[in-house]
Design brief:
- It contains 9 helices and 12 strands.
- Helices cover 39% and strands 21% of the residues.
- With 241 residues, it is α/β, with parallel strands linked by helices.
- It is elongated.
- It has 2 domains: 122 residues, Response regulator (Rossmann fold, 3-Layer(aba) Sandwich); 100 residues, Winged helix-like DNA-binding domain superfamily/Winged helix DNA-binding domain (Arc Repressor Mutant, subunit A), CATH 1.10.10.10.
- Bound molecules: calcium ion.
- The site of calcium ion has 5 residues, from loops.
Length: 241
């Protein structure tokens, strides 16, 4: 069984919700060949329940389905998780709604499509979203992080820019430490809220933007470092260095 590099080690699972049995089986066969574990449902309600139970790495979602349509499933899943969702649309369906902010699907593919293209889309969507997966918060005994001229010492709770202490508020420090400990990894605003502020703040994503702007301001003495906090449109933030 040929394994794609990204499917090795941690096995990725794909949930396919599709009521056309022939298409469903073709998708199952080809995705399994690529090394994915495949779960299937032919009914919207079952699909939603399965998504909640198996927590797949990605959901392939048809739109016209018995009991609960793909739009509704997408809307519900998006409220509950960040699982990547790839919609299978038929010509003439409301693609704008699918990819619009309202529903938050990650991508769509219009029927009829080639299985080969679909598998490539699955792979690309997983690759794009892989960096969003849960990453450990910096460990309590972690040492120092260095990003360019910026030094972060978690033990002493100090940050220095080009050797000069930075006067950071506690949450500014925590946010900077989170990004620095996971350099190159993108976080959504909700993930940042959860890790830095805790669950109570989920949804107040503006808070993150405000703190990032304060951090950039405090890092401005060293423009390269200030620019290392990268805004990823429609996603969140990442620290490069
Ligand atoms: Ca259908």
């Amino acid at each position: 069984m040929p394994l794609q590099p990204e499917a090795q080690g941690t096995e990725k699972s794909v949930l396919v919700v599709e009521d056309e049995e022939n298409l469903l089986e073709a998708l199952r066969y080809n995705l399994e060949r690529e090394g994915y574990r495949v779960h299937t449902a032919t009914d919207g309600g079952d699909g939603l329940e399965l998504a909640r139970r198996v927590k797949p790495s990605l959901v392939l979602l048809d739109i016209m389905l018995p009991t609960l349509d793909g739009f509704e499933i997408c809307r519900i899943l998006r409220r509950e998780s960040e699982v990547p969702i790839l919609m299978l649309t038929a010509k003439g369906e409301e693609v704008d709604r699918v990819v619009g902010l309202e529903l938050g699907a990650d991508d769509y593919i219009t029927k009829p499509f080639s299985i080969r293209e679909l598998v490539a889309r699955v792979r690309n969507t997983l690759r794009r979203t892989r960096h969003l997966e849960e990453s450990p918060a910096p460990e309590a005994d972690a040492r120092n992080y260095r990003v360019g001229n910026l030094e972060i010492d978690l033990n002493s709770h100090e940050a220095r820019l080009a050797g000069q202490p930075l006067n950071l508020k506690p949450k500014e420090f925590d946010l900077l430490a989170l990004l620095a400990a996971n350099k190159g990894r993108a976080f959504t605003r909700d993930q940042i809220l959860e890790k830095v502020w805790g669950y109570d703040y989920i949804g107040q994503t503006r808070t993150v933007d405000v703190y990032v702007s304060w951090l950039r301001e405090k890092l401005r003495a060293d423009p390269t470092t200030a620019e290392s906090i990268v805004t990823i449109r429609g996603v969140g933030y990442r620290l490069d260095g």
